[in-house]
Amino acid sequence: MQLGQFSISLNVKNIALSKQFYETLGFVAHPQCGSIQDKWLIMQHDKAVIGLFEGMFDHNILTFNPTDVRAIEHHLVANNIAIDSPTTGDEGPTHLILKDPDGNTIMFDQF
C-alpha cells in the first residue's frame, strides 16, 4: 500500500509568527500553496513537509498524499478500521479522515 508524501498539518494561533519560526529552522514556504492572507501555507525543508493552518481545525493532523486514497479506504474497511469521513465519488480528488487508537487524526488526501 502506497501512502505517498507524509506531512503534518499544524493548528497554529498566529500564522505569521509560526511561518517566521519554521523559516528559522530552514523551512521554505511553497509560493503556490497558501499564504499568510489565506491563513494557511505549506512549508518544506528537505523531505520534511508541514502545513500551517490558522483557525481551520482544532487539532494537528497527520497527512498522507497517496495516489489512490480509495484503495486505502477499501483496505481499511476490509480490516475493520472505522473511518470518520469517507471518500466521495468514484474518481478524482478526494480524502478520508480517521483516528488512530490514541485519537490522533489522520487524513489521506488525494489531489
Describe this structure as you would to a colleague.
The chain is of the alpha/beta class. It has a single domain (5-110), classed as Roll (2,3-Dihydroxybiphenyl 1,2-Dioxygenase, domain 1). It contains 2 helices and 7 strands; from the N terminus they run E-H-E-E-E-E-H-E-E. It has helices at 15-24, 69-78, and strands at 5-12, 28-35, 40-45, 48-54, 61-65, 94-99, 105-110. A 7-stranded mixed β-sheet has the order 2-3-4-1-5-7-6, with helices on one face. The longest helix has 10 residues, at 15-24. The radius of gyration is 15 Å and the shape is elongated. It starts with a strand and ends with a strand. This is Glyoxalase. Residues 8-108 form the Glyoxalase/fosfomycin resistance/dioxygenase domain. InterPro entries: Glyas_Bleomycin-R_OHBP_Dase (IPR029068), Glyas_Fos-R_dOase_dom (IPR004360).
**Mind telling me the C-alpha Rg?**
15 Å
- Share of helix among residues? 10-25%
- Per DSSP, what share of the residues sits in E-state strands of 2 or more residues? 35-45%
Pick out the low-confidence regions: none
Secondary structural class: alpha/beta
CATH architecture heading: Roll
Instruction: Identify the quaternary structure here.
Output: single chain
How would you write the strand order of the largest sheet?
A: 2-3-4-1-5-7-6
How is this fold's topology laid out?
Layout: E1 5-12, H1 15-24, E2 28-35, E3 40-45, E4 48-54, E5 61-65, H2 69-78, E6 94-99, E7 105-110
Parallel strand pairs: 1-4, 5-7
Antiparallel strand pairs: 1-5, 2-3, 3-4, 6-7
